[in-house]
Design a protein that fits this description.
Glutaredoxin; 5 strands; about 55% helix; disordered N terminus
Length: about 210
């Protein structure tokens, strides 16, 4: 679906993650997609995630609605989503590229749909590409447009740059959450539950 150069670049970046130091950053980065409060907000919450990450899908299903209602819809925090493809990297990369092609107003809807549809291709009920094309169609992107989107060299290069930035920030897995520059520690693989996020966010809001 994407040029071999792209897949090789993503694989190198993924391998480099194992050598990176722990940590992460919440300062503004090129290509950031955000919801909630504007840039410069008192509290910024960054999530590094991937549409092929099962734990990311579980966090979206179980925690995102409450997090969104309490912090994003009320503009209490600036929520930033950063792209970090996980295996199979070519599927994750295609999903990110498609979300970008859908436009800023549909980006998060596409990402959430990809996460929600993850189980269908993981179960073998449908091929990953067919699942991506189906999702694209739901947002008005034809199959030919999808193909153009995921092979656009400039878009691919920009994605590679974002992946490299995540690696440089020391992010070692998904989902990773960073609140005002501090990585949120949590147990289990799904991602931090609401009480853990509240413990990290609410004291920052109270400052």
């Amino acid at each position: 679906m994407t040029p071999m150069r792209t897949l090789a670049g993503l694989a190198i970046a993924a391998a480099a993650m194992t050598l990176a130091a722990c940590g992460g950053g919440s300062g503004a980065a090129e290509g950031d997609m955000a919801l909630g409060a504007p840039e410069g907000a008192k509290v910024t919450v960054v999530e590094y995630a991937s549409p092929t990450c099962a734990h990311c899908a579980a966090w979206q299903n179980n925690t995102w609605p409450a997090f969104k209602a309490k912090y994003v819809d009320t503009n209490k925090v600036r929520y930033v989503f950063r792209e970090l493809p996980t295996p199979p990297a070519e599927i994750a990369a295609a999903g990110f590229l498609m979300a970008r092609c859908a436009g800023p107003d549909k980006y998060f809807d596409v990402i959430h749909e990809l996460l929600a549809n993850q189980a269908e291709w993981q179960s073998g009920a449908i091929s990953p590409r067919a699942s991506l094309v189906k999702t694209a169609g739901g947002f008005g992107i034809s199959e030919s447009q999808f193909q153009e989107c995921v092979t656009d060299e400039k878009a691919v290069a920009a994605l590679e740059k974002r992946v490299q930035a995540a690696v440089a920030a020391g992010v070692t897995g998904t989902p990773t959450f960073v609140v005002n520059g501090k990585t949120v520690a949590y147990t289990g693989g799904e991602g931090p539950p609401m009480p853990t996020l509240e413990a990290a966010i609410d004291p920052e809001l109270a400052k």
